[in-house]
Amino acid sequence: MSLLNLLSLVLLYPVYATASGGFVAYGDYNCQEQKLDVWSDGVTVPDSTLRTDYSLKDWDSHAGGHYYENLTFSQSMSTNHTLDEAPIQVVWWKLQEADPTCEYLIMKDSPRGWQVLNKLPSDEILRADREGCYYSALRPGDSLITSFCCGRDDCAVAEIEKKYEKSPGDSSTGEAPKCSVVKSSSYSSTPTIENGPQIGITRPQGCEAAPACTHSVTNSQTFSTAVANYHTYTWTSETGLQMAYTTGVNFLTEDTLSLTLSYSISQAFAEETGTTITAGNISTSAEGSRQVPGTFAFYSFTPQYECWQADVSCGKDKDGNEVILKGINFCQPIMASNGDAAGTFRMVYVSDGD
After folding, report:
1. Closest alpha carbon to 121 in 192, 43, 54, 23
2. SS3 for 262?
3. Which residues touch 19 (CB under 8 Å, ≥6 apart)?
4. Are 29 and 106 contacting, i.e. CB atoms less than 8 angstroms apart?
5. How many Å apart are CA 286 and CA 238, to the nearest integer?
6. How far apart are CA 117 and CA 108, in angstroms?
7. 124 to 30, 189, 289: CA distances (angstroms)
8. What phi, psi does 267 have (nearest 5°)?
9. Is the peptide bond prior to 87 cis by the omega test (within 30 degrees of 0)?
10. Beta strands 343-350 and 123-128: pairing type?
11. SS3 328
């Protein structure tokens, strides 16, 4: 390698490292005086820094982020508040080496599945687009995922407080065929518990008043039956209709027409599982948790779903061959005893709105 090429690589390396960023753990709200020691599964985390070296786009190689399992911290401040009856520890994160064109995330890993309905590997608890000192409240032994995205298009999936268009899921030139669940050896009547997409249910707000600020849910949020598919199918039916079922997650609403393929698939699963196409809400009067003074944050909700996966038969094509859609997921929102959708509320701390 020539000296000129070697020098070019040396000069490029700091740029790449700077773009990756990192969150340094502190015990004080200024992120200056009390740097914490950090261990992941009992192994020291170098420089007390959770690196954001894998992006949300790194699905195949790193599942969308850098995973830090079973975290513990030295001398982090305990509070008299609890999460699920477990005491919480306050950890402030100093975001450093941030690229101004990127956003940096810390997500809290969940024991529930996420791959069926989500484009994020877990729930956000912190998202920042600039260097600063950011709050988190953690249980001892929590596992965290760090990640980043750059540019408006790639970061759209991380901006959970904003609304997005639902995937159309399917299209046809007429009424969809009647579908049925194929009871193969891979089908199980026992559902898995999955996290639905985390969404913001309040607007981001600052907090200056001690000891804390609260968020109130002012808009009704609906969480409905969903069908998810990871393959694209196109065919011409026996009656000459052009059918298409595309990759994506389709949440059924009152506007979903009964002649669509998604509706036909949902009806087939509902009959097989003894359920009905459902829409759950969270109460408009729900009171959010407390936001720490000196921060900027919004309140979020992650619904929980029961999901079944199976192959689905949807009639025959123009050549008389049975049309089998492989690995279709059918998910129903879990309902709490009060009639609201069951799930997890979280405060998400973000950069201020300037």
Report:
1. 54
2. helix
3. 97, 99, 102, 150
4. no
5. 51
6. 17
7. 22, 31, 16
8. -65, -40
9. no
10. parallel
11. strand
Q: Is 276 helix (H, G, I), strand (E, B) or coil?
A: coil
Residue 287's pLDDT band (cuts 50, 70, 90): low
Contact 292, 348 (CB under 8 A): no
What's the Cα-to-Cα distance from 73 to each of 22, 51, 109, 315, rounded to whole Å?
17, 16, 17, 58
- Residue 308 is encoded by which pair of tokens? 């079944």
pLDDT at 172: 60
CA–CA separation, 190 vs 213, rounded Å? 42
C-alpha 38/C-alpha 50 separation (Å) is: 9
Contact yes or no for 27/94 (Cβ under 8 A): no
Per-residue pLDDT tens digits for 149-201: 999 889 999 999 876 555 555 666 667 889 999 988 778 889 999 999 998 88
- Tokens representing 5 are 């090429």
Tokens of 222: 């609906």
Helices and strands, number each (H, E), in the chain: 4, 28
Other beta carbons less than 10 A from residue 86's beta carbon: 12
Closest CA to 155 of 208, 193, 113, 102: 102
Mean pLDDT across the chain, nearest whole number? 83
Q: How many CA atoms lie within 13 A of 92 on its CB side?
A: 19
The amino acid occupying position 25 is A
The residue to which tokens 């009992």 are assigned:
42
CA distances from 110 to 9, 114, 118, 302, 315 (A): 39, 8, 13, 11, 39
